[in-house]
Design a protein that fits this description.
- By secondary structure, the protein is an alpha+beta fold.
- Among the domains are: about 160 residues, Ferritin, core subunit, four-helix bundle (Ferritin, Up-down Bundle), CATH 1.20.1260.10; about 35 residues, no CATH class.
- Helix content is about 40%, strand content about 15%.
- The chain is built from ten helices and eleven strands.
- The strands form four sheets. The protein has a four-stranded antiparallel beta sheet.
- The chain starts with a helix and ends in a 7-residue tail after the last helix.
């Protein structure tokens, strides 16, 4: 199936590269190359983490049987890189190469916290680009990856004791938003492979717990990004909805309407609008989801699993027995991170973005 798809792109290479999106004026190959840029980043992220942390490290942190599943996630990301690279070559385009990255890999729990955010941004990036793709075959290529990235995100959310599906709709992001978020991870790139889209100033978030109706302490890393004497808003992108509250002296209320739980993106804007042309800084990332997911899964019978039956495990982390197999993970996410740790991971993006120019 994959081979037939690549062959079809080869036959249609002239039209695929030259046709521009009806909505953006950017050709489809450029959009998929941007997707490949993100896939390279995710691919290296998981490879570096699995090289740094061993299965024993995850076991010690309370994540029994998780390592093989993360290896599968890593293989998925590598496959995405290979698929997009082959598709772009088949269409007559030059695929971007992997860059050199700098990732904060300190411990297992912070790795899982940041993975949740990285995967969420990946889903939002694909969703945001989907409407700009003109050619059906490219829509299929992006969509086949988007659905897998969404499953990765749901899985990591569950590991961190967040509901795997907090919203009925995911949140699309513009390419400018995505670049603003991921640029700090780039150290250097081969010629022609660095992001060419200009991002915005970062937003530094000092709030550690996010609640609807609460106060969000958020300031642009570049103070000059906000013009003096002008009314400015915090814009919240949540699913397919948007909400706005007035930003004053470094804080704004978190809305209670048009915003749901889940990974939410916040910009400072002159709008009220989420369009790039009105955005002054951001996005920052917050998550108002209660961190209380707990699921008990009965062990498989010997007949069903082909192995000896294991005792039940729960998502609150009291595993009655351990298994080194992927199935042994069941719902045991005993090394759950706290809401403050998740806020710290979200804030890490802003801290990394602050003061850094977009890599060109």
């Amino acid at each position: 199936m994959k081979k037939n798809y690549i062959q079809r792109l080869e036959k249609r290479s002239n039209s695929l590269v030259k046709r521009n999106s009806l909505t953006t004026g950017v050709d489809d190959a450029t959009i998929l190359n941007f997707a490949l840029t993100l896939e390279h980043l995710e691919d290296v992220w998981y490879k570096m983490a699995l090289e740094k942390f061993t299965a024993a490290d995850f076991e010690a942190a309370g994540y029994t049987g998780l390592y093989p599943l993360l290896e599968q996630v890593s293989r998925d990301e590598s496959a995405h890189v290979g698929f997009l690279t082959a598709a772009l070559k088949a269409a007559g385009a030059t695929p971007v190469e992997a860059c050199n990255y700098s990732f904060p890999l300190t411990d297992v729990k912070s790795f899982l916290s940041l993975s949740q955010i990285v995967e969420g941004v990946g889903v939002s990036a694909y969703l945001g680009a989907a409407g700009a793709i003109h050619e059906d075959d490219y829509v299929t290529a992006a969509g086949s990856i988007l659905t897998v990235e969404a499953r990765h995100n749901a899985f990591v959310r569950f590991l961190n004791h967040y509901t795997p599906f907090p919203q009925p709709n995911d949140t699309p992001l513009s390419a400018t938003n995505v670049v603003t978020i991921v640029t700090p991870f780039f150290e250097s790139c081969p010629e022609g492979s660095a992001p060419t889209i200009m991002g915005k100033s970062a937003l530094n978030v000092s709030t550690t717990e996010f609640t609807l109706g609460g106060t969000l302490e958020v300031t642009p890393a570049n103070a000059s990004a906000v013009p003096a004497g002008k009314t400015v808003y915090c814009g919240f992108a949540s699913g397919l909805d948007a909400a706005f509250t007035e930003w004053n002296d470094g804080s704004c209320p978190i809305p209670t309407e048009n915003i749901t739980v889940g990974q939410t993106y916040v910009v400072v804007t002159t709008g009220p609008s989420l369009e790039d042309k009105y955005t002054l800084a951001g996005p920052a990332i917050i998550d108002t989801t209660p961190q209380n997911t707990s699921v008990t899964i009965p062990a498989l019978s010997s007949a069903a699993s082909g192995a000896s039956s294991a005792a039940e495990t729960t998502a609150t982390g009291e595993a009655a027995s351990a298994s080194a197999s992927p199935a042994g993970l069941a719902a045991s996410t005993s090394g759950a991170v706290s809401g403050k740790q998740m806020a710290g991971a979200a804030g890490l993006f802003a801290a990394l973005v602050g003061g850094l120019a977009v890599l060109l």
